[in-house]
Every structure is written in C-alpha cells, then in structure tokens.
Amino acid sequence: MDKAYDLTKEEAQALIRAAFEVLPQAYVPYSHFHVGAALLCADGTVYTGVNIENASYPATNCAERTAIFKAVSEGKRDFKAIAVCGGTDGKAADFCPPCGVCRQVMREFCRPEAFKVLLAKSCSEYREMTLEELLPLSFGPGNLA
Question: Which end of the chain, N or C, is more open, meaning fewer C-beta atoms within 10 Å of its C-beta?
C-alpha cells in the first residue's frame, strides 16, 4: 500500500487559506450554506471551487467537485490534497466534510491511501485525514478492471 502524501504545515495552511478566500464566491441563494475548496495537484497547481446551487436541487454542484472538475478539464489527473471549509452565511463554525458524491468523485481520481483531505474551521484549526479514512472499502476504477 502506498504511503500518504506528506504535507507541511505551511502547505496545508496555504491550501486552507485558498479555500477560505473563495468561500464568499459560493452561489447559495437557497441554503445559504457556503462551501469553499482548494485542490492541490501533484505539480503544485491549486484549483479552487465553491458550491453552486440551482433551483432544481439535483443540479447543484459541490465545491469539491467544482475544483476537481476544473482541474480535470485542464488535463490534471494527479492530486495530493484538498482543503474544504464551509458554513451558514459563509461562517465556518465547524468542520465541513465532503458529501458522499464528492468522496466518490475523489475516489475516481485519487489514491485513497495517499490523498489528503483537510477539513478546516480556520487556517490553524483543521483535521487532516486520508480519503481512505473518509471512504473505507470504496469502489473505484480497479473494481472494473
């Protein structure tokens, strides 16, 4: 089993800051629950995303998927970590874990044992875990080989 990616404290905090910086850009006229995400590619590139709601709720897109889809659409496929923050009216009062659909999208593109997920209340207060810890016994591309 591959080792998890190592992130320095500075790298983690920079990624979290990037997620917090985009948080106000969320389009959330219905839930008022803002989410920001920042995805770190293996080459050091960072893609950000916010949640974008729709009056037809199933058409809503989460911040994590927005960041991943932006990166994939630009040809990126190797990811190290993602930082996620969010809360009502853009105030991160607690940790904001990715939904099940976002975890499954991460699984499509990331090695579960290596990819880091940072859940942040602030730049200094966050939890770091692997995707494997968030999505144990996952179904991925290897299951279809």
Answer: C
